[in-house]
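ok so for the tutorial part 2 we go from a plain amino acid sequence to predicted structure tokens. step 1 is just haveing the sequence, like this:
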Amino acid sequence: MTITAIERNNRRRSRVDLYINGVVACDISRVTAKKRDLCIGSELSEAELAGLIAEDRKREAMETAAAMLARRPHSEREVRRRLTQRKLDEPIIEATLGRLKEVRLLDDAEYARSFTESRGRMSPRSKRLLVQELRAAGVDSAVAASAVADVSDVDAAYELAQTRLRSLSRLEEQAFRQRLSGLLQRRGFGWDVTRGIVDRCWLETSEGRSA
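step 2 — the prediction. this is what the tokens look like for a chain of 211 residues:
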């Protein structure tokens, strides 16, 4: 089989279409094409073409996963979903996930810890809601529970309330309580915690007005 053309892939700049005997046989990464020193006129056997495609798909799987994890931690399920969307074969996906876990680039426990810390800094919410979100990302229930074990609903609710007090501080008491209660409940806090934080914040706001 003879390579008759190597053309830029229209959908992905990093890849090229490989023509064999005048027909598109596959698309591969530019890196793979360069590494194999492919050019027009090169001869490939069926076994060599199959090996070339397999090598390229393994590279694509690892590069896709690594790019995801370089931006932020992800759960195993999230990485698996992305690789599946790339239409990669299951054995390649499993091998990629296995390698990433082996070198500890993919670790659901670390992901859950990082996720919990990030939410605490940027968007506080209840332990119950945190566990729900981690479970939705594919994290095991025991791992999720361990990650949120040190979270205090009272502290998290108060931190959240503090981010909104400036916009609520001029409201009358009933509107203040309704707005803040709604916010806390949407973030998963139970009624007992919500009521206590609303009372505390209203008292602090009232004292600030009279100071």
